[in-house]
């Protein structure tokens, strides 16, 4: 773990960040650029009048930084608290799932969990009657797996097109900016599929006493795939080891007045006191062939699988044993995504899940920034190998001097790997990243050959000269590879380019490339 940031990943900055000490032996105040500041309580002024001097850049910088302290709050789940911990496997499930972090009992994986309410803003009471978010980031050796779940096994709607409307109806009235029970019930009374979630939310479980005293659910159906490629549908359950405890309406209203951050404080103090919040991680497992026969659509998020039909099987334990050091760096900047899978865990056709696969990283790009994956709390523990580069606030090595395109001739990465999670059997066919067969069977030279033959002699001359001029700038082996393609296209085209290139190489005129 990186002691400076309090998170598990280093930010890659190798420069020393030790405390600066002045001649008195006491720590120095500095500007953001590291220059000493003699007094951080008094602005730089001149003479008896004490007029401020524009040259007190430190003053303006300090205010400018304050002006920019907030990032947009999450559009939902804005009020939350988080903690670090670990996941430990307690049962061998390698016959069901090939994910390496599940490979053997006793194996531990670092995690970061964030709990939240949904409709409330960042400063709202923890004690609202609402669903609670239960998001866990597993930093595995195969990349991050995020279980971005809730404390209920079902959801309000079953088609993602309704989600933005649902959120609007739960938030504030566009005119009054007050909570609007009319909009709340207007929407729900027009969406009967919400009844299951509605009853849970208005039951005692609608106001969990603390984050420790509630269960977590992946809610959606997911797919587990083993090493042999055999798949099962699964649902994830996190069963609290501290018992379910809820607050009555009256208790919640009263505590909201006296201790609005009740659940946040409980998480902090229970970890400080060594009373580590813990959950049993269980799965329900459904053979694929059961899905079409089950009484309820197993991919409808408003339905559960009855425990008597698919009993809970314990797989591991989730334990939170370390508080965050800095709320903004670790909790506010945390970005979870249902689209972050590792090999062995895949999506199901649940429409809500499918739409969530994209929504979260999109939200993070807006809320935190393009390079949110490089923020220490989100950074995987494995090396990231990607051709994405640049953008605002690059804090990694940005790929260094390695090529930023693929395919290339330099980094020896295989073109495809059929063992990876985005290549798998599906009832609609094989899901893969291979090009359609039609493309492979087509002759990619036929049409350019027709074009070459249609060109006037003058156009041919210019084309040949333009290509020869440009390709001169490429490495010899790349020139030769490209000449091979020109030969496949048209012999006349290839030999004319070859001749022109040889002439250009001998010519004393300097290389010019304008395209
Ligand atoms: C179409 C359905 C849904 C959409 C489009 C959606 C979208 C979003 C978005 C945009 C955020 C804010 C993300 C951010 O700013 O970092 C969010 C947060 C969250 N959502 Fe959803 N959501 C949906 C349904 C669900 C469901 C079904 C669950 C649980 C099973 C869920 C659990 C969460 C949690 C736990 C968070 C907070 C994550 C954190 O702690 O940072 N959402 N959702």
TrEMBL record:
InterPro entries: Catalase (IPR018028), Catalase_3 (IPR040333), Catalase_clade1/3 (IPR024711), Catalase_core (IPR011614), Catalase_immune_responsive (IPR010582), Catalase_sf (IPR020835). SMART domains: Catalase. Its cofactor is heme. Residues 398-411 have a biased composition (Polar residues). This is catalase. Residues 1-18 have a biased composition (Low complexity). It comes from the Eukaryota. Its EC number is 1.11.1.6. GO terms for biological process: hydrogen peroxide catabolic process; response to hydrogen peroxide. Belongs to the catalase family. One of its GO terms (cellular component) is peroxisome. It is an enzyme of class 1 (oxidoreductase). GO terms for molecular function: catalase activity; heme binding; metal ion binding. It holds the Pfam family Catalase. Residues 30-414 form the Catalase core domain. PROSITE patterns: CATALASE_3. The active site is at residues 77, 150. Residues 423-436 have a biased composition (Basic and acidic residues). Residues 1-41, 396-436 are annotated as: Disordered. Heme binds at residue 360. The keyword Iron applies.
């Amino acid at each position: 773990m990186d002691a400076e940031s309090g998170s598990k990943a280093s930010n890659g900055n190798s420069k020393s960040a030790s405390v600066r000490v002045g001649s008195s032996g006491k720590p120095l105040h500095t500007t953001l650029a590291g220059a000493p500041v003699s007094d951080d309580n008094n602005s730089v002024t001149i003479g008896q009048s004490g007029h401020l001097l524009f040259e007190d850049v430190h003053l303006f910088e300090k205010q400018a930084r304050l002006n920019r302290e907030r990032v947009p709050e999450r559009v939902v789940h804005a009020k939350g608290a988080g903690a670090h911990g670990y996941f430990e496997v307690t049962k061998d499930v390698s016959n069901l799932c090939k994910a390496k972090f599940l490979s053997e009992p006793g194996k531990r994986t670092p995690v970061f969990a964030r709990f939240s309410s949904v409709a409330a803003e960042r400063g709202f009471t923890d004690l609202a009657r609402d669903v609670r978010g239960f998001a866990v980031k597993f930093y595995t050796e195969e990349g991050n797996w995020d279980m971005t779940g809730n404390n209920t096994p079902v959801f309000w709607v079953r088609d993602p097109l309704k989600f933005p409307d649902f959120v609007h109806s739960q938030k504030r009235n566009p005119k009054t900016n007050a909570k609007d029970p009319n909009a709340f019930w207007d929407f729900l009374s027009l969406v009967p599929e919400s009844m299951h979630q509605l009853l849970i939310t208005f039951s005692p479980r609608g106001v969990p006493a603390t984050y420790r005293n509630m269960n977590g659910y992946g809610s959606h159906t997911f797919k587990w795939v083993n090493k042999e490629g055999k798949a099962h549908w699964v649902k994830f359950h996190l069963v609290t080891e501290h018992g379910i405890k809820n607050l009555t309406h009256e208790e919640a209203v009263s505590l909201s007045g006296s201790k609005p951050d009740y659940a946040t404080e409980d998480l902090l103090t229970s970890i400080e006191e060594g009373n580590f919040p813990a959950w049993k991680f269980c799965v329900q497992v459904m053979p694929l062939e059961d899905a079409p026969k089950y009484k309820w659509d197993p991919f409808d998020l408003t339905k559960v699988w009855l425990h008597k039909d698919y009993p809970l099987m314990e797989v591991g334990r989730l334990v939170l044993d370390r508080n965050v050091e800095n709320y903004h760096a670790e909790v506010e900047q945390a970005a979870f995504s249902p689209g972050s899978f590792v090999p062995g865990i895949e999506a199901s056709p649940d429409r809500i899940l499918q739409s969530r696969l994209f929504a979260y990283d999109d939200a993070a790009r807006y809320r935190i920034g393009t390079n949110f994956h490089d923020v220490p709390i989100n950074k995987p523990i494995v090396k990231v190998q990607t051709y994405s580069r640049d953008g605002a606030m690059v804090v990694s090595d940005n790929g260094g001097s390695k090529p930023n395109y693929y395919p290339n001739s330099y980094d020896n990465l295989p073109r495809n790997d059929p063992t990876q999670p985005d290549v798998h059997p599906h009832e609609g066919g094989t899901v893969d990243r291979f090009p359609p067969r039609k493309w492979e069977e087509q002759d990619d030279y036929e049409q350019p050959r027709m074009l070459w033959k249609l060109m006037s002699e003058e156009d041919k001359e210019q084309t040949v000269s333009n290509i020869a001029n440009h390709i001169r700038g490429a490495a010899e082996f790349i020139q030769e590879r490209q000449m091979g393609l020109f030969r496949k296209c048209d012999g006349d085209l290839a030999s004319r380019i070859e001749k022109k290139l040889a002439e250009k190489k001998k010519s004393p005129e300097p290389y010019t490339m304008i395209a």
